[in-house]
Amino acid sequence: MSYTIDTLFDDLPGANGFHGKDILKVAQFSRDELTYIMALGERMREVVESSGGLDLLKHRLMAALFYEPSTRTSASFIAAMERLGGSVIPITQGVQFSSVSKGETLGDTVRTLAQYADAIVLRHPEIGSAAEAAHYAPVPVLNAGDGAGEHPTQALLDLFTIQQELGQIDGLTVAMVGDLRFGRTVHSLTQLLLNYDVGFRFVSPEILRMPLAIANQVRDHGAEMRETYDVHEVIEEADVLYVTRVQKERFSDLAQYEEVKGYYIVDPELLTKAKEKMVVMHPLPRVGEILEAVDDDPRAAYFRQVRNGLYIRMALLAAVLR
Amino acid sequence: MSYTIDTLFDDLPGANGFHGKDILKVAQFSRDELTYIMALGERMREVVESSGGLDLLKHRLMAALFYEPSTRTSASFIAAMERLGGSVIPITQGVQFSSVSKGETLGDTVRTLAQYADAIVLRHPEIGSAAEAAHYAPVPVLNAGDGAGEHPTQALLDLFTIQQELGQIDGLTVAMVGDLRFGRTVHSLTQLLLNYDVGFRFVSPEILRMPLAIANQVRDHGAEMRETYDVHEVIEEADVLYVTRVQKERFSDLAQYEEVKGYYIVDPELLTKAKEKMVVMHPLPRVGEILEAVDDDPRAAYFRQVRNGLYIRMALLAAVLR
Amino acid sequence: MSYTIDTLFDDLPGANGFHGKDILKVAQFSRDELTYIMALGERMREVVESSGGLDLLKHRLMAALFYEPSTRTSASFIAAMERLGGSVIPITQGVQFSSVSKGETLGDTVRTLAQYADAIVLRHPEIGSAAEAAHYAPVPVLNAGDGAGEHPTQALLDLFTIQQELGQIDGLTVAMVGDLRFGRTVHSLTQLLLNYDVGFRFVSPEILRMPLAIANQVRDHGAEMRETYDVHEVIEEADVLYVTRVQKERFSDLAQYEEVKGYYIVDPELLTKAKEKMVVMHPLPRVGEILEAVDDDPRAAYFRQVRNGLYIRMALLAAVLR
């Protein structure tokens, strides 16, 4: 199946709802909208696999405004825009040395860039900065991470990966492993998954447990949920093993870190206990929490997950800018 | 009205004069050439508004060589080249760490880049560097600011903004407000305006008055001119209020700064005394000299002014490279 | 002669051998392959001169992953990809501040980028890093310099320049002048030239002589070779004068540096003794070892050599990605 600019959006209910919209937080999406974005992501996968890209956004410009470096995220958005036939203004370094250091507000900076570009992808270290930018910008703002706040495109690509790998989301048991306290990605993914009928397993050291606010949200939704310290206790029932890094620096008592770290490492032996059809995910970069020996296991999906980031960001840019 | 590559330059007298030329300083332009550039800028506005861009400079490359960061200017030139269908080699960071740190001359650097690109946009901290680059480069050099020297594309977009906002330039009273001593933009704009029948009002603290050389140039041209300390004295007669920042650091006596700063701040109350059809401009970034409360006033043109930078740079690149 | 996407590769023996391959080191090329790459480079020259570029690699993406800055090399690869109609993800600054600083391996970084891009151009300070990247990446890796290791595209453009300037390679006498000990470019070019019937002259200070391993390789090939301290001794017989910089810092005894430095400087007087049809080359940047007074001599080929880098990199990207 090959799509053209004319047929790309055919038969996609909700296709018009995103035009001109900002992409700021996971809570903005209804289940229907998630279905729409994922269907469009699937079509983007077909387009890239068959011909590399298309000319949907020819003569359209995306400004990539990164107040902190993020090679992975900026590369993914740039690739998405280029494969859609558009162009990019990369402002991925040194923002702090230019206008901004002269005291310009974020509002003025985005209003300026909006004179040049048709959309602004923003990475900023402060919570709420994406919403602030969207308030001022006359063009769509896509939040590429605002500090400890949100990183909605990561959560969407995570959701899309589960759908792509397992063919469904309803009915699954999703285990999240590692640093659930500070891990922005697991918070956002959990919220997205509350749109579905999913069971949760939260696996972390005591000091890195899922924040009460989110745990309560899960409980209020009536979703099945269990917390534990050891990944071995959930490995057999998990359909999804979403791994994040446990940083040594989080522990004031290093002896405690040494004691528990093995509970959160994925190696081939652990996977012998897992279902044959399950999926290991990780937002990357990893630093030892998934061994390289796991990479060739067909269940190791983290690089396909990266690829899905391309498709989902293509879908979002196309939906917002077409 | 929609233009194609074939009709874009039709009926524009002087269309061929810019091919292969450098854009180095405001003094290089005759009034006819200014008319031509602004007419082409107007067409670029129509192109961008109707279709986002065109394919005039397909397979042409512009090198953006920025020895000092300038998010705004580099973004504007990059956007201009991309909307013309061309591509960009962005060298907007770290020039100092590479070849240059190995002691390469500016002449060798631009001759090298000219082997890859069809035009070079240069930002450099030293006066005269753009002319030096143009001496060596076998391709057009566009000066994007050479220290305390020139920034001709800023002056052209300022002129274009007056034309676009008020429909004419002859007969206007232009008030320049703030730091007229160190403000490169007001010096260049003043020189461009001497091609027209314009009255000047220079509003600044004593220590930041317009340099004698430029004030004398204005007088020698027989243009009407008046200097004052307080913007309130000119607000009623001004057709253009061109505001720049009065930097605290310029004052050795901070008490003096506190005393006068209110003379140079634009707020809604000030605008109640202004003509109904006038225009507030600013080269941006601003830091308090125009209050945000002014932004919604239809006379507040500074973000449209930014947008005009895109059109004027498209016009210049098209004229030089087509 | 003008080429289209359909005719570009016509009649080029060996055209299919490069598809999907990595470009890692000069030793990987057979003489037939060198002939092929140079023939394709010649066609790229014709394409650029006649129309600026072509659409061969439309919708294809090249990631430029530069762990150390190199304005010249990154600009050349970016220009090559853009003139082929493709697009670029520029990661030419700050890699060290992002994922990598979080401890990600090179293998994970390139596997990540390979999800977005169709080829990866890698510059890295460590020997062997390009081969390591190629081991992990599912897409072609092009080595743009791995520390003291290889910089194969520089060697290829050097070879191509000799061919373009003198119409042949067999039968020439090639003098390499300056720092032959640490100069990566002269090592690689020497190895490439061993595919041809070439005589070598190695001209350097004692402490900067060509490494024994390479000198022995030349001898084992039965190539004619002579070493000397003074460029004046070889200037009359040289067909190619390949100049590199003698860095003051290499000398522990500065008096010694002052004594010999004149032996390695190319000035108009030296060239009066040279053949009328010969060629002066330099990998650039230069810092005084070739005087500017030489630039207008028709034998001064170093800026044309830069240009040839564009054509050779276009040829390599086209061969690997088409």
Description:
Three copies of one chain form a homotrimer. Chain A has 322 residues and is α/β, with parallel strands linked by helices. Chain A has two domains: 26-151 and 308-321, Rossmann fold (3-Layer(aba) Sandwich); 153-306, Aspartate/ornithine carbamoyltransferase (Rossmann fold, 3-Layer(aba) Sandwich). In chain A, 36% of the residues lie in helices and 14% in strands. Chain A has ten helices and nine strands. Chain A has helices spanning 31-51, 71-83, 106-113, 129-136, 152-166, 184-193, 212-220, 254-260, 268-272, 302-321; strands at residues 61-66, 87-91, 119-124, 141-146, 173-177, 199-203, 225-228, 240-243, 279-281. The first copy, chain A, has a five-stranded parallel beta sheet with strand order 7-6-5-8-9, covered by helices on one side. Chain A is globular.
Descriptive terms for the model:
4-stranded parallel sheet; Rossmann fold; 5-stranded parallel sheet; homotrimer; alpha/beta; globular; 10 helices; 322 residues; 2 domains
Describe the protein's topology:
The structure is a homotrimer of 322-residue chains.
Chain A: H1 31-51, E1 61-66, H2 71-83, E2 87-91, H3 106-113, E3 119-124, H4 129-136, E4 141-146, H5 152-166, E5 173-177, H6 184-193, E6 199-203, H7 212-220, E7 225-228, E8 240-243, H8 254-260, H9 268-272, E9 279-281, H10 302-321
Parallel strand pairs in A: 1-2, 1-3, 3-4, 5-6, 5-8, 6-7, 8-9
Helix pairs in contact in A: 1-5, 1-10, 2-10, 3-4, 5-6, 5-10
